[in-house]
Amino acid sequence: MKRRTFVNLFLGGSLLGTVISFLYPVIRYLIPPRQAEAAAKRILAAKAGELAPNSAKFFRFGSTAAVLVNTSEGQLRAFSAVCTHLTCTVRYEADTGTLFCPCHNGRFDLAGNVISGPPPRPLEAYEVEVSGSDIYVSRKT
Amino acid sequence: MARLWEKIRDYLEPRFLLSAVRDLAGKKKVPEHKRSFWYFFGGICLFLFLIQVMTGILLMLYYTPSVDAAHESVQFIMAQVKFGWLIRSVHSWTANILIGVIFVHMFSAFFLKAYRPPRELTWITGFLLLVLFLAFGFSGYLLPWNELSFFATRVGTDIAGVIPVVGKGLKTFILGGPEVSGATLTRFFWLHVGILPAIAVLIMGIHVLLVQTLGMSKPIGVTVTKEISFFPDFVLKDSLGWLIILAAVGAVCVFLPWEAGPKADPFASTPLGIKPEWYFTFMFTTLKLVPAHIFSVEGEVLAVLGFMLGGFLLLLVPLLDRRAAREKRSPVFTAVGLAVVVYIVVMTALTYLAPNIGK
Question: What is the pTM of this model?
Answer without folding.
Answer: 0.88
